[in-house]
């Protein structure tokens, strides 16, 4: 299964072709150096690599290859030299021969050994909806193994031991859907909140979106937005069963009308369980919430840790608070928790414009910040993932729209920062022979957070869109994030 950095083995060699490639730029190299004006508690990035689009990133078995979801497909990047990341291969036109293809809106991907799962579209659309499995034995020459076409959009998913775990938003109950993908694909089973409590049928489905899933051995951890986080037994993927609820409200306490109350509930804390992951032995669970300020209340949320050594009885242990924002609304500077990784005693996390951080969580009741880097007007980070222990971790940025000039709309200005991949030093696992001073010429070395100038960005999902969706039948896993 996917064990991440501490259990990464050597990648196999060889591979087969069979996917469409962009006219893009295999062999393109990144820009080394530190961005101007950062704030952090250590050295800045080793390098950045500009891309046309970037969302989720995962790291291959030996840590030297990073795969980034690019909306139209994925890009394989060699990060073996952290100062010189290099594009190995760009895959686009996924399932181009399908009558509804190609697949678009690809924001999530997961890796298990030498198999890579990509899913999309992240939000409802009239086009193709599918989970596609690739063989990446040779990262520079991927091969499609098979696909599973769905009736629902696919925002997030997981891959373990040949089974795809899909977030089936839009289906009754917004279920977890288990699928075996090969030359032929087979849906195996489903589980939703409706299987646990019929009272959830009365709750608007945008408040019980299955936003994310993480699988550790025989257990699936499900982030059900305002409905909370649940643990489900998937030892038999054809028959998932309830184990426990980590946290969440009584469904009777959630609003069912009017639309304004539903919108507000789905944006502000508490709630909005967005991302879940466990450490390698499955004893510590992290739950990240994604929230904003709305109409003068609320704000960004952080990451909460739970002891799940007994999965039938999770116990809250501690929390990482979000970085501050001077404009915490959806139209401002995003510093809420996004995706993260637990590796050994450390949590590598991304906070959109709040930067990237590493915390020592050996005592999860009192996480200690060990590293951070932030430049709000330069990067909106999607995730942070350890690459090579003691050398580097990676973080993709969505890009930051500019403020515009001469009255132009945001996104039209020359100060717009492009999407791409940042490669940072892994200072918490540094090897003696590669140890780096925490005083970097391009970093302030300050303990306090800093804000970029003119960092306000356009809301990806305005109130009008929310209101129109409330009557459209769409399932609002269509968050501004992904």
Helix content: under 10%
- Beta-sheet strand percentage? 25-35%
Shape: globular
Q: Report the strand count.
A: 32
**Cα radius of gyration in angstroms:** 21 Å
How many structural domains can be distinguished in the coordinates?
1
Derived from helix and strand composition plus strand pairing, the structural class reads mainly beta
Highest-level CATH class: Mainly Beta
Taking the alpha carbons of the first and last residues, their distance comes to: 24 Å
Number of helices: 2
Question: How are the strands of the biggest sheet laid out side by side?
Answer: 1-3-32-31-30
From the 3D coordinates, which CATH architecture would you assign? 7 Propeller
Low-confidence segments, given as residue ranges, are: 1-26, 31-37, 404-413, 432-479
CATH superfamily: YVTN repeat-like/Quinoprotein amine dehydrogenase
The CATH topology: Methylamine Dehydrogenase, Chain H
Task: Please explain how this structure is put together.
The protein is mainly β and 482 residues long. It has a single domain (5-470), classed as Methylamine Dehydrogenase, Chain H, CATH 2.130.10. 4% of the residues lie in helices and 32% in strands. It has two helices and 32 strands. The protein has helices at residues 259-267, 463-470; strands at 31-32, 39-40, 47-50, 57-59, 65-69, 74-78, 86-91, 108-112, 115-120, 130-135, 143-149, 157-160, 163-167, 176-180, 186-191, 212-216, 219-223, 229-233, 241-247, 273-278, 284-289, 293-294, 297-298, 303-307, 315-320, 340-343, 346-350, 356-360, 368-374, 385-386, 392-397, 420-425. The strands form eight sheets. Strands 1-3-32-31-30 form a five-stranded antiparallel sheet, with no helix packed on it. The chain has a five-stranded antiparallel sheet with strand order 2-29-28-27-26, with no helix packed on it. A four-stranded antiparallel sheet has the order 4-5-6-7, with no helix packed on it. Strand 22 and strand 23 form a beta hairpin. The longest helix has 9 residues, at 259-267. The radius of gyration is 21 Å and the shape is globular. 55% of the residues are buried. Residues 1-26, 31-37, 404-413 and 432-479 have low confidence and may be disordered.
